[in-house]
UniProtKB/TrEMBL annotation:
GO terms for biological process: response to oxidative stress. InterPro entries: KH_dom-like_a/b, OHR, OsmC/Ohr_fam, OsmC/Ohrsf. PANTHER family: ORGANIC HYDROPEROXIDE RESISTANCE PROTEIN-LIKE (PTHR33797). The lineage of its organism: Bacteria, Pseudomonadati, Bacteroidota, Flavobacteriia, Flavobacteriales. It holds the Pfam family OsmC. This is Organic hydroperoxide resistance protein. Belongs to the OsmC/Ohr family.
Amino acid sequence: METIYKAATKAIGGRKGHVKSEDGPIDMKLSLPKALGGDGGDGANPEQFFGAAYAACFGGAVEAVANKHKVEIGDFEVTAHVSLGKTEEGDLQLAVILDTYLPKVTDIETGEKLVNEAHVMCPFSRATRDNIDVTLNLMLDE
């Protein structure tokens, strides 16, 4: 792989600590959700960061694919619903549902083509492929 960008983010204290990116934009307290035995404080958690990163990356891929096919998608949105669960063996496992809203797309076939191609292109989708369950939902106006 030819590296074109690098980022470094440090976590101190695990899920109940603090995260800070090397260049400064991320500088946040972490809290353990109540569902995981924590106090559910006002800090963020890794699943929220993963969801934000995946939604943003997938949105970039959707936009790139739409531009490639010259399809107007409007003020699109991607919402990543990240679930943390346990496998049959008791290991923790992620699952993601990506809801992609394309307000200017009027037909399902075009929308599905864009979303499916974005899933092939997106680095987060490629990194998670065959590792976690990812469900793609196309959201169109009726």
